[in-house]
Design goal:
This protein is mainly β. The protein folds into 2 domains: 1-42, N-terminal domain of TfIIb, CATH 2.20.25.10; 59-112, SH3 type barrels. The protein has one helix spanning 33-42, and strands spanning 16-18, 21-23, 30-31, 60-62, 66-67, 74-75, 80-81, 85-86, 93-97, 101-105, 110-112. The longest helix has 10 residues, at 33-42. The protein is elongated and about 60 Å long.
Length: 113
């Protein structure tokens, strides 16, 4: 018995391997396991400092004073940030802070309200 995955399109169990690709003879769908790995990475879960899952549109609070790089401004502890957007990268929160403007934050410095 083989350990090949079922077809993700039609769920057929009669898939076969051709080089780096898997092929479904019933619906002619071709895919690779690398594509499935990339899909899993794109569904990355972003968590706050307490381990709560963050979503687009959440409201968070800054848990420590953060210096704004390239200026003398500081985002104070307890600052409430509304309607966040999650993005890829080192700074995974894109937001607009009242009186400071648009900036990016790291999720490890915020907690979900």
């Amino acid at each position: 018995m083989s350990n090949l995955p079922n077809c993700p399109k039609c769920n057929s169990e009669y898939t076969y391997e051709d080089g780096l690709l898997f092929i479904c003879p019933e619906c002619a769908h071709e895919w690779s396991l690398e594509a499935e790995d990339q899909d899993a990475e794109s569904a990355k879960v972003v968590r706050d400092a307490n381990g709560n899952v963050l979503n687009d549109g959440d409201t968070v609070t800054v848990i420590k004073d953060l210096k704004v790089k390239g200026s003398s401004l500081v985002v104070k502890q307890g600052t409430k940030v509304k309607n966040i957007r999650l993005i890829d990268g080192d700074h995974d929160i894109d937001c607009k802070i009242d009186s400071l403007g648009a900036m990016k934050l790291k999720s490890e410095f915020v907690k979900k309200i």
